[in-house]
Amino acid sequence: MRAALPSPAQAAVSLADRCVLCVGGLTGARNHYRAEIEIRAGRFLHHDGGREDNLHRLTPMLAAADIVICASGNISHNAYHLVKSTCKKLGKPCVLVKGTGIASFLDGLGHLAAEDAPADGPSARGDRVLRRKR
Question: Which CATH superfamily is domain 15-115+125-130 in?
Answer without folding.
Answer: Response regulator (3.40.50.2300)
